[in-house]
From TrEMBL:
It catalyses: ADP-D-ribose + H2O = D-ribose 5-phosphate + AMP + 2 H(+). The keyword Hydrolase applies. Pfam families: NUDIX (PF00293). GO terms for cellular component: cytosol. It comes from Microbulbifer agarilyticus. This is ADP-ribose pyrophosphatase. Its EC number is 3.6.1.13.
């Protein structure tokens, strides 16, 4: 049995030998092709393998919550990755955006809140950071919660020059929580589910 007090993996970055790394595509997204090998649990090194890596930097997601009126706001927008989704490719999500060079995580959170929701948050509560899909991308998502007055905040937002067509929707907290608890496909992306589950655990201290 593993020692439950020590969750660290056996190996670190030094146990990977990147033989070659080259760009396979550089457009709206980036794709690198790697030839590498790594150490094995049974000892020694494995043989060389090829892997494609979807290259994305850090991203920030912000859950909008109104503790006084028990409201939650989510963005609704078209997502090409959800094209074949049974419920359709318009997804309910937390406000989100990519970190640009020189920006702090908090800078990104406040910029995206303005662009996608038209709100200014005085305080950001850090939720957690995580890797959305480490089997194929290097992206890391950083989640926050912003407490704001959400009354009469619904509207249309986004930057036209970035092809953003965003609808901000405001829901009663209990409606959103019931959807997450039931596994409703209306909210089926990791950032939103993680943020809402965190809110379920921490809502009392945000009052």
């Amino acid at each position: 049995m593993s020692d439950n007090k020590d969750l660290r993996p056996q190996f670190t970055r030094g146990a990977v030998d990147v033989v070659e790394r080259k760009s396979a595509y550089n457009g709206f997204f980036k794709l690198d092709k790697l030839r590498l090998r790594h150490r094995l649990f049974r000892g020694g090194w494995g043989s060389e393998m090829e892997r494609e890596l979807f290259v994305r930097g850090d991203a920030v997601g912000v859950l909008l919550y109104d503790p006084e009126h028990q409201l939650v706001a989510l963005t609704e927008q078209f997502r090409v990755g959800a094209l074949e989704r049974e419920a359709g490719p318009w997804c309910l999500e937390v406000v989100a955006g990519m970190v640009e060079e020189g920006e702090s995580l908090e800078d990104v959170a406040r910029r995206e809140l303005q662009e996608e929701a038209g709100v200014t948050a005085q305080e950001l509560h850090f939720i957690r950071s995580y890797l959305p899909s480490p089997g194929g991308t290097c992206e890391r998502m950083h989640l926050f919660c912003a407490c704001v007055d959400l009354r009469d905040r619904e509207g249309l937002f986004g930057l036209a020059d970035e092809h953003e067509d965003i609808r901000l929707r405001v829901f009663p907290l209990e409606t959103v929580m019931a959807a997450v608890d039931s596994g409703d496909s209306a909210i089926d992306n990791a950032a939103s589910i993680i943020s809402l589950q965190w809110l379920q655990l921490n809502r009392e201290r945000l009052r």
